[in-house]
Amino acid sequence: MVPHSKGGDFVTLNPLSLIDAALANASSWEGAVCRPMKVGKEEIMGMLAAVDYWSHADLAAIGKESQNRLARIAKLVETVPGVTTSTMIRHTDTMYPVLIVKWDESQFGLTVDQCAQQMRKGDPRFEVWTNSNPGGVKYEKPPETPHPEVFRIDTMTLQPGEDLIVGNRLRQKLDEHANNLRERVLKLAVKYRF
Q1: Are residues 48 and 113 in the same domain?
Q2: Would residue 164 count as lying in a domain?
Q3: Is residue 33 part of a domain?
Q4: Are 35 and 28 in contact (CB under 8 A)?
Q5: What are phi and psi of 142, to 5 degrees?
Q6: Is residue 9 part of a domain?
Q7: Full domain range(s) for residue 183
Q8: Is residue 1 part of a domain?
Q9: Quick one: which of 103, 147, 112, 154 has its CA closest to 130?
Q10: Whether residue 26 is found in the same domain as residue 82
Q11: Which end of the chain is more exposed for a tag (fewer CB within 10 A), N or C?
Q12: Are 1 and 45 in contact (CB under 8 A)?
């Protein structure tokens, strides 16, 4: 077990060769594993609790609940004309799906980044993944080649019922912009007598 107080905790449980290698590269004069890295007893107990939970967790049930939450959010936001959703599993760092929400940014007058910022500042506020914020944590991303923004929702940390709060809030924000689009189209229709 190699947690440290600056985050990025990890646990080596298997194979034994990795455990031996981790111990061989630790300071042998410091005593127990973890203490040399100045890890508090609370962090060690938290890590043990996490290992205990995840070693007994029903991963299929967790995945099914995550899918159900995403489906409920998708059902809510897809009531807004012009909004589509899909699910994706990023096998690189998680085995659970995320919801991809798409809309025509130019027609809605709302970019993915603007929507994410509004969700972050609203009440209740919540964080989503975007290309400029891929981990759901605010950070300054260095400039790189432009690519389409993607609005992603991960439900793994939501409590029961919070998926409905997220879905309703996002639907309200997208619907507000869709209504603005409808009003602009109606004004143009009246102006040009369509």
Answers
A1: no
A2: yes
A3: yes
A4: no
A5: -65, 150
A6: no
A7: 59-191
A8: no
A9: 112
A10: no
A11: C
A12: no
